[in-house]
Specification:
235 residues, alpha/beta
Length: 235
């Protein structure tokens, strides 16, 4: 990605780029702030057995009645994106828009997530996006422990099929659930964790960033950490 394009996406995220000298162009300023190039995404054919596994899993999720959320949902939100992605993004739970459309991270938070990905050279089509829960909790409340437990197997089966090289945990609940900790998000971000050998980087949830503009720069640092971790893993 060229520096001018990256600068545009950083601006869309609300990240102010420091220009160190009056004569510097915007592209040069972005280059001094950031040295992150997007990865080259290779698309490989999916084996027929894998396709059948995905279809079976998606059908199971759509018909799931393991917890009370099945009574209040409009539909399940299975996840979307590249089923052979190197990057897997895991959020908390569907919201109202997601419940209505059946897709994860739509609406304002989804738009910001798209810009966050573009800032590190990724498109939504390059990653797979899922949630801890497949159904919306009423009123967008925090997930209950029994709901998380009911959906856990579905998420782990998705991860096993994708075999991601890095996982982004979007927000406190996703991070605490995946890492099996009650530590606050401030203690979890800024470092690389692991989930059964896969690097996990914790990032602020886009919905939180819409309410707390001051933390967008911290989110950008987390994205850089994730990209650098991915490159190190690849190298």
């Amino acid at each position: 990605m060229d520096n001018a394009t990256r600068l545009h996406y950083l601006d869309a995220m609300g990240i102010d780029v420091w220009v160190p000298r009056a004569s510097a162009s915007l592209a040069d300023a972005a280059a001094e702030l950031v040295d992150v190039d997007g990865p080259t995404i290779e698309t490989k054919p999916i084996a027929s057995a894998t396709i059948e596994s995905w279809d079976l899993l998606q059908a199971e999720v759509a018909a799931c009645r393991k917890c009370a959320l099945c009574e209040t949902r409009t539909q399940t939100v299975f996840g979307s994106g590249n089923k052979q992605a190197d990057w897997m993004l895991i959020g908390e739970a569907p919201g109202q828009s997601e419940d209505q459309q059946g897709q994860p991270f739509v609406g304002s938070a989804g738009q910001l997530l798209t810009e966050m990905l573009r800032a590190i050279g990724l498109a939504r089509e390059d990653v797979f996006i899922a949630n801890i829960l497949k159904c919306r909790p009423p009123g967008n409340r925090d997930p209950n422990a029994d709901e998380i437990a009911a959906c856990h197997d579905y998420l782990m089966r998705q991860r096993a099929l994708i075999k991601p090289k890095i996982i982004l945990a979007l927000g406190r609940i996703a991070a605490q659930t995946l890492l099996k900790t009650d530590a606050p998000l401030a203690k979890l971000r800024g470092k690389v964790h692991t989930l059964e050998g896969t690097p996990v980087v914790v990032v602020y949830h886009p919905a939180y960033l819409l309410r707390s503009l001051i933390d967008k720069r911290k989110a950008w640092l987390d994205l850089q950490l994730a990209m650098n971790t991915y490159k190190k893993f690849e190298g």
